[in-house]
Design a protein that fits this description.
The chain contains 13 helices and 21 strands. With about 475 residues, the protein is an alpha/beta fold. A hairpin with a 4-residue loop joins β1 and β2. About 55% of the residues are buried. The protein binds dihydropyrimidine-2,4(1H,3H)-dione and zinc ion (2 copies). One zinc ion (ZN) binds next to loops.
Length: about 475
């Protein structure tokens, strides 16, 4: 008699965003087909021995092989980036197909598919970055792309090559409302950054540490407030990405308190790094240059609190991989470049889940259900991948992490699987790491060994986020509405 399952995971302490229970998981053709006890026979069995088992992570904000315009090059492509993700328990990534100004959005999507195909080792979907909302983009490309499964797009309020003005953002919010798409916002005030940067460079202050001084919290606060107001006016939800500290958190809490659909994401850099991380000797501080910059210890506490009290729905990595050494990474403009000439971003795909499991769950700051929601379920829901991704349930993809929670280890870059030559989390102790990661039923990481295969990863078309998530509660004052 043929086995009922390809794989049985036995004795799993299954944690979802809602439940915690002991059961076996039956897997057939990459999907979970049964959960229970005494399920039958399988070609392969994995004994979880009562260990914690969670859904594979959905890292909904990462940058892989994204073209840049300044001579720099991202160190991770779809192979090394997704390999690294899998080794840290992430089984779905959502990086960005980025439009260059003057170019079509469709061309960016086609190009990005070519970069991913045959390389991705775990499943992937795409967000869009819209840097040039031309009439063609607004009226044709975006509606078509949303219908084809690209249901979220990011808008930037800073970076010269990407930033949009308020009117352009309103145009995009309006398309999102019409098409049922999710708009992600990078909220920093570009003119304030440019003004502060000029002042600092004029005063001879160009070391990496001044990156943080050129982007103080108030410029994130102002842009967050403005983004929320624009979304309120357009009567559509928004998702504020990579929130760094107290000022933006207050704006988001206020909006959520008013009943506005304002979702928020934060990242490990705002829990584990501070502006002091940019003050390392010489140019070393460039390793931690990212935007918004990390703040201080008190703000780390605010972010931890926000993970616990529901301000944040997502913890993503914002993995933006540039090597420290070499001519195309952080030193693309030389070893003494001023802070404004250093590529922004830090690696973090592999360390995101172990850091949160260790310091969040084991550290007593959040419970395991919050962990699952923040690292997997909410991203799947907000970006239209649930219930295929983001949970352990019959019918879902067999994307599963079996955790080792009692073997303390120290994060060292040499143990990671990305193509970056450093980790900003070097030396941080963790107590948890995935023992086994399964992607659609295939073991891709086991006991310290990467077992994945380039090309195993499939492209995922996203649904529109569920109507309840997208129903706006917009401006209630007197207003002419188109
Ligand atoms: N900030 C971004 O907005 N994107 C990538 C990296 C970064 O630091
Ligand atoms: Zn950003
Ligand atoms: Zn980013």
């Amino acid at each position: 008699m043929p086995a009922s399952f390809d794989t049985l995971v036995l004795n799993a302490q299954i944690a979802t965003a809602a439940d915690l229970y002991l059961a076996d998981i039956g897997i057939k053709d990459g999907r979970i087909t049964a959960i229970g006890t005494g399920l039958g026979s399988a070609a392969d069995t994995i004994d979880a021995r009562g260990r914690l088992v969670t859904p594979g992570g959905v890292d909904a904000h990462c940058h892989l092989d994204q073209p840049t315009g300044d001579g720099s090059r991202m160190a991770d492509d779809f192979l090394t980036g997704t390999r690294s993700a899998a080794c840290g328990g992430t089984t779905t990534v959502i990086p960005f197909a980025a439009q260059f100004k003057g170019h079509s959005l469709r061309a960016a999507v086609d190009d990005y598919h070519r970069r991913a195909e045959g390389k991705a080792t775990i499943d992937y979907a795409f967000h869009l970055i819209v840097s040039d909302p031309s009439p063609l983009v607004l009226t044709q490309e975006l509606p078509q792309l949303v219908a084809e499964g690209y249901t979220s797009f990011k808008v930037y309020m800073t970076y010269d090559e990407l930033k949009l003005d308020d009117r352009q953002i309103l145009d995009l919010l309006s398309v999102a409302r019409q098409e049922g798409a999710m708009v992600m916002v990078h909220a920093e005030n570009a003119d304030c950054i440019a003004w502060l940067t000029e002042q600092m460079l004029d005063a001879g202050l160009s070391a990496p540490r001044y990156h943080a001084h050129a982007r103080p919290m108030l410029i994130e606060r102002e842009a967050t407030h403005r983004a929320i107001a624009l979304a309120e006016l357009a009567d559509v939800p928004i998702l504020v990405v990579h929130v760094s500290g107290r000022d933006a958190v207050r704006q988001i809490r206020h909006a959520q308190g008013m009943g506005l659909k304002v979702y928020a994401e934060t990242c490990p850099q705002y829990l584990f790094l501070t502006a002091e991380s940019l003050e390392l000797e010489g140019f070393e501080g460039a390793k931690c240059i990212c935007s918004p910059p990390p703040r201080d210890k008190a703000n780390q506490e605010v972010i931890w609190h926000g993970l616990d009290n529901g301000t944040f729905q997502l913890l993503s990595s914002d993995h933006a991989p540039f090597t420290f050494g070499g001519p195309t990474g952080k030193q693309v403009n030389g070893p003494n470049a001023s802070f404004d000439k250093v590529p922004n971003g830090i690696p973090g795909l592999e360390t995101r889940m172990p850091l949160l499991m260790s310091h969040g769950v084991a550290g007593g700051r959040i419970d395991v259900h919050q962990f699952v929601a923040l690292t997997s379920t909410n991203a799947a829901k907000l970006y239209g991948l649930f219930p295929r991704k983001g949970t352990i349930a019959v019918g879902s993809d067999a994307d599963i992490v079996i955790w080792d929670t009692d073997q303390p280890r120290t994060i060292r870059n040499e143990l990671l699987h990305h193509a970056v030559d450093y980790t900003p989390y070097e030396g941080i102790e963790v107590t948890a790491w995935p023992a086994i990661t399964l992607s659609r039923g295939v073991v891709v990481w086991q006991d310290g060994h990467y077992l994945g295969r380039a090309g195993h990863g499939q492209f995922l078309r996203c649904e529109r986020p569920t109507p309840a998530r997208m129903r706006g509660r917009g401006y209630r004052g007197p207003l002419w509405r188109p």
